Structures are given as structure tokens and as C-alpha cells.
Amino acid sequence: MNYRHHYHAGNFADVFKHAALVQLVRALQRKDKGFLYLDTHSGRGDYDLAAASSGLTLARAPEWPEGIGRLLSADPAGLSPVLRDYLEIIRAHDASRRTAADPDNASAPLRHYPGSPRIAQALARPQDRLALCELQPDEFVLLDDEFLGVRRTRVERIDGYIAIKAQLPPPERRALVLIDPPFESADEFTRVAQAVADGLRRLPAATIAIWYPLTERARSDAFLEQLVALPTPSCCAVEVAVAGPDAPQKLKGCGLAIINPPWQLAPVLADLAADLAQRLAQAPGGGATLSWIVPEA
Ligand SMILES: C[S@@+](CC[C@H](N)C(=O)[O-])C[C@H]1O[C@@H](n2cnc3c(N)ncnc32)[C@H](O)[C@@H]1O
To answer: Residue 57: what pLDDT?
Structure first.
């Protein structure tokens, strides 16, 4: 477990994942009944971008300037409602952390970038509940600290794939699961597919969002095939590529496969992906796609 999300916090992939997460949570909140938000790979919950840009704690260049950094410098009037919604949550999180001793830093105009647990918690209603899982010991300590005393939120040092079996079905019978692994190991895609199978067996109506990297097309296609082979009620995959297949960078884009996507959400996420493919492009040949890998009945 060498992965540290700190290097990547606020990059193009985080922007896409987190802006989509906001819309997923809002869509589940169309119903009054509460739900469980299960974050299988939570990270630390808050990332200090100033530390990331000073190079004091990081051995390589931060990625946020080409992600959230570009949105912060865009004309706000030209941003879509979905991006404005996301940015408001990001800015509110940052503002809540600022103190007189922690003024604006020119190299990181936004200092505190929230991870997925903080974004979900910012939106949670009194009837919603959060279960946050992190396996890496140092990240877990930071996450645990971050959520100390936060109501209806449970932080656990547990393998996120095991947590799916432990947490589902929840008493609410409604759940939004975010699976966002580091993809360090060769069998990660297979573990995800197995975890999705476990989750659907326990709660067939669960909405499960899986983030995946676009490195080689064949790998992501094979993963989507694995999802199709499961008893998946419906599943769409929304992808954003910031570089074309021949570009030199390894991570050319990313996708979100969403099992049981809330009604009418897929086109919203497709528009978001298309917008970000342009705004956050790093090399020619990128773009965005929406595919219904298991169409809605
Ligand atoms: C991509 S990061 C998560 C980022 C976070 N979801 C966000 O959007 O802010 C993946 C995290 O999973 C943790 N991790 C790795 N393997 C894990 C496992 N089997 N179970 C739970 N956490 C794990 C890593 O330490 C890392 O913090």
C-alpha cells in the first residue's frame, strides 16, 4: 500500500469524481428517506494543497493546478450549474478551515481541498448516515481525526471490500456506495467486480459508483465486461479523457461506472464529462462518452 492520494488531490480525476458525487448525493436526496453513504476507500478527508505546492511534504509536482486550479481561474459566469454546485462545496470547506494564522496563499488560492467523505458529509441530512473506510494506517488516523465527533458518521480501519459485506444491507434499505481504490495491484478490477457482486446480492437496489482509471482501453473494457456479467439491474459508464490514446501520460482519463444510477442522472454526468474534457484537456484527442453497459429496463 504505497498509494497516497495527497499527490493527486484536486486533479482532473478528483474534479470529475467529486462533481459527480455531489449530483449522486443530491439525486438520492430527492426522496425524504435517509440512506447510508458507504465510502470504501475514503482517504484522509482533507488535503492541504499549500503543502502540496510548496514541495515540503511531496516529492513531486502537485496535480491540482491542472484540475481544480483551472476551474478556480475560469470565469464563474461561464460555469455550468453542476460545476458551480461543486465549487461552492469546495470553497465552503476551505473557508471553514481558514484561520487568521492560515491566510490565503498565492501558490494555493484554495488551501484545503475536501476528499469524498467530506463532500458527502457536507451534503448529508439529519436522516442520512456515513460509513467511512480506510485501510492505510496513517491515512486512517487522519480520517478518524477529521471526523471526530461528527454525528451519524462511523470511521473504520477496515478493508473497504470487506466493509461492503459488513455494512449492506443497511437498516435504511437505501445506500450510495463509492468504490474508489488506488488501482495499485493487478487484481484490483477483479476485486471491485467481486465486491459489486457481494453488494448487489445484499442490496440489489444499491447505487454503486466505481471510479476507474483510463490507462489502456483494453483494461477498462475488460472491467466493464465483468460488470455486465453480474446480475446488474442497470449500469452506465461515463468517461472523461483529458488526453488521446497516443498521448505520453499514463493516466489519460477516468471513468465512473454507476450501478442503478438515479433517474435522469446519466445525461447530467455526460454533460459534466464533456465540459471537463474541454476545460481540463492536457493533450489533443480527449473527449467524453456515456455508455449504458446494462440499459435500464
Ligand atoms: C483514491 S484514494 C481515495 C480518495 C477518496 N475516495 C477521495 O475521493 O477523496 C484510495 C484510498 O484507499 C486506501 N486503500 C487502499 N486499499 C484499501 C482497501 N483495501 N480498503 C480501504 N482503503 C484502502 C488508500 O490508502 C487511499 O487512501
So the answer is: 56
Q: Which of 153, 85, 265 is nearest to 145 (CA)?
A: 153
For atom 8 of ligand 1, the residue with the nearest CA is: 116
d(CA 174, CA 136): 28
Rounded to whole angstroms, the Cα distance separating 125 from 269 reads 23
Is the C-beta atom of 159 inside 6 A of ligand 1? yes
The average confidence (pLDDT) of the chain is 93
Which is catalytic among the residues 180, 198, 221, 275? Answer: 180
Q: How far is the CA of 143 from the centre of ligand 1 (A)?
A: 11
Whether the CB-CB separation of 111 and 97 falls below 8 Å is answered with yes
Q: How far is CA 270 from CA 28, 53, 84, 153, 207, in A?
A: 18, 31, 16, 31, 17
Q: CB of 118 within 8 A of CB of 45?
A: yes
Q: Which of 21, 55, 43, 7 is nearest to 268 (CA)?
A: 21
pLDDT tens, position by position, 24-65 = 999 999 999 999 999 999 999 999 998 765 555 556 788 999
Q: Based on the residue annotation, tell me whether 180 is a catalytic residue of this protein.
A: yes
Size (the chain), residues: 297
For residues 37 and 180, what is the distance between their CA atoms, to the nearest angstrom?
13
